[in-house]
Amino acid sequence: MNKILLVDDDRELTALLKQLLELDGFHVELANDGVEALAKLDDTIDLILLDIMMPNKNGLDALREIRQNYTLPIIMLTARGGELDRVLGLELGADDYLAKPFNDRELLARIRALLRRSAWMDGPFTEPVSSDDVSPVISIDGLVLYPGRQEARFDDKVLDLTGTEFTLLYLLAQNVGLVVSRDDLSMKVLGKPLSPFDRAVDMHVSNLRRKLPERKDGLPWFKTLRSRGYLMVAVG
């Protein structure tokens, strides 16, 4: 049973969401602000639903601290017009966001998609502990991706990527030299159709560009093809 940490100061909403999620088979822990969320966070939590506007410590500050130690999926809950909050949340490492008020089915679909991604990364590609030699890794110009443990290394130094950033990077690396559409990336990485003005995929690519070291061959890691998608550049 997956365990979700639901963080929101709206106690009526959290009570309703807790009931909804538990009826769908999840175990739910509640927190009413960022301070309480950080106190309750541990390795048993599989996913966090994190509101932004809260007393004591808001969602963005809590997210910043969470990402110092955890890579688990995080969905931000934002105000309908909170475009700046959404962008900041994605820059700080949130995996996705939902604007309030949201549809219950959409929330459950987003949760399942991110949890499936985590299970996929830990499932078919799990690497034997005894040997990395038989692991299904991808290596591109000093960058090595280990999908079983969601780990990226450059010159044997581990890169600080979230689970979503790693999944996006891995999918682009699987198709190196080929264009992958934003629609495909949104479905395969975030588990949702791409909607108009949705910047989640673009922000995750931007985060990867910022976090990845300079390539040895001097080429960019990615190219943006307007109206088509993204391409991971092959070794020159």
Automatic annotation (TrEMBL):
<dbReference type="GO" id="GO:0000156">
    <property type="term" value="F:phosphorelay response regulator activity"/>
</dbReference>
<keyword id="KW-0238">DNA-binding</keyword>
<feature type="modified residue" description="4-aspartylphosphate">
    <location>
        <position position="51"/>
    </location>
</feature>
<keyword id="KW-0597">Phosphoprotein</keyword>
<feature type="domain" description="OmpR/PhoB-type">
    <location>
        <begin position="135"/>
        <end position="234"/>
    </location>
</feature>
<dbReference type="Pfam" id="PF00486">
    <property type="entry name" value="Trans_reg_C"/>
</dbReference>
<dbReference type="GO" id="GO:0032993">
    <property type="term" value="C:protein-DNA complex"/>
</dbReference>
<dbReference type="GO" id="GO:0005829">
    <property type="term" value="C:cytosol"/>
</dbReference>
<dbReference type="InterPro" id="IPR016032">
    <property type="entry name" value="Sig_transdc_resp-reg_C-effctor"/>
</dbReference>
<dbReference type="InterPro" id="IPR036388">
    <property type="entry name" value="WH-like_DNA-bd_sf"/>
</dbReference>
<protein>
    <recommendedName>
        <fullName>Transcriptional regulatory protein CpxR</fullName>
    </recommendedName>
</protein>
<feature type="domain" description="Response regulatory">
    <location>
        <begin position="3"/>
        <end position="115"/>
    </location>
</feature>
<dbReference type="GO" id="GO:0000976">
    <property type="term" value="F:transcription cis-regulatory region binding"/>
</dbReference>
<dbReference type="InterPro" id="IPR058122">
    <property type="entry name" value="CpxR"/>
</dbReference>
<dbReference type="InterPro" id="IPR001789">
    <property type="entry name" value="Sig_transdc_resp-reg_receiver"/>
</dbReference>
<dbReference type="InterPro" id="IPR039420">
    <property type="entry name" value="WalR-like"/>
</dbReference>
<feature type="DNA-binding region" description="OmpR/PhoB-type">
    <location>
        <begin position="135"/>
        <end position="234"/>
    </location>
</feature>
<dbReference type="InterPro" id="IPR011006">
    <property type="entry name" value="CheY-like_superfamily"/>
</dbReference>
<keyword id="KW-0963">Cytoplasm</keyword>
<dbReference type="GO" id="GO:0006355">
    <property type="term" value="P:regulation of DNA-templated transcription"/>
</dbReference>
<keyword id="KW-0804">Transcription</keyword>
<keyword id="KW-0805">Transcription regulation</keyword>
<keyword id="KW-0902">Two-component regulatory system</keyword>
<dbReference type="InterPro" id="IPR001867">
    <property type="entry name" value="OmpR/PhoB-type_DNA-bd"/>
</dbReference>
<dbReference type="Pfam" id="PF00072">
    <property type="entry name" value="Response_reg"/>
</dbReference>
